[in-house]
Specification:
The chain is of the alpha/beta class. It has a single domain, classed as 3-Layer(aba) Sandwich (Rossmann fold). The chain is 24% helix and 34% strand. The chain is built from five helices and twelve strands. A seven-stranded mixed sheet has the order 2-1-3-4-12-11-10. The structure holds glutamine. Glutamine binds next to helix 4.
């Protein structure tokens, strides 16, 4: 990679450190976003990690970061959301009115696999990559997607990864495996294509 890319990882709560490690394995410069002043206008991409979407949504409002982030995403900043991150990026969260970015035309169902099957591991296909390991933790899935959304993974008839323009989302946690190809996809297809 010629230019050293800089990707910010939202670090208010949840599993951000694993994303940082994966990005480091891809020679990308990364930094943690904990407060409004951490938002660097020069960043090439943003990751919203897993955690608890209601908590993160509340913190985004309390820390007065929601509007700034929304503006950056709406203006085309490439963003990758995993699990709770996917929920925060969705157009609609089924049955909920939490703060969220409405950045990708999907309806998501939280904790969609119920209590028993809340967490599981499988291997399935990611369009353009092939079979990849997928770790689900009290995961959401995508109930419906608009016509402009590209569906990237389907597991048990549920959409679990998708992309629309500058927004990539997965129900599962690619950062919890040693396979860095989804992050590489984010960099190559959403960031480098744009630059
Ligand atoms: N169940 C969580 C939520 O609804 C998401 C879980 C996760 O990010 N691993 O926000």
């Amino acid at each position: 990679m010629d230019k050293r890319l800089k990707i910010g990882v939202l670090a208010l709560q949840g599993g951000f450190i694993e994303h940082i490690h994966i990005l480091q394995s891809l020679q990308v410069e990364t930094f943690e976003i904990r407060k409004k002043s951490d938002l660097e206008p020069s960043m090439d991409g943003l990751i919203i990690p897993g955690g608890e979407s209601t908590t993160v949504g509340k913190l985004l409002n309390d820390l007065d970061m929601y509007n700034d982030l929304k503006k950056l995403i709406d203006n085309g900043l490439p963003v990758f959301g995993t699990c709770a991150g996917m929920i925060l990026l969705a157009r609609e969260i089924e049955g909920r009115e939490n703060a969220h970015f409405e950045a990708i035309d999907i309806v998501v169902k939280r904790n969609a696999y119920g209590r028993q099957l809340g967490s599981f591991f499988t291997e399935a296909s990611f369009k353009g990559i092939g079979q990849i390991p997928m770790t689900f933790i009290r995961a959401p899935y995508i109930e419906s997607a608009g016509a402009g959304v590209e569906i990237l993974s389907v597991v048990d008839n549920h959409i679990v990864a998708a992309r629309e323009k500058n927004v990539l989302v997965t129900s599962y946690h690619p950062e919890l495996t040693s396979d860095n190809r989804v992050h590489q996809y984010f960099i190559e297809k959403l960031i480098l294509k744009k630059i």
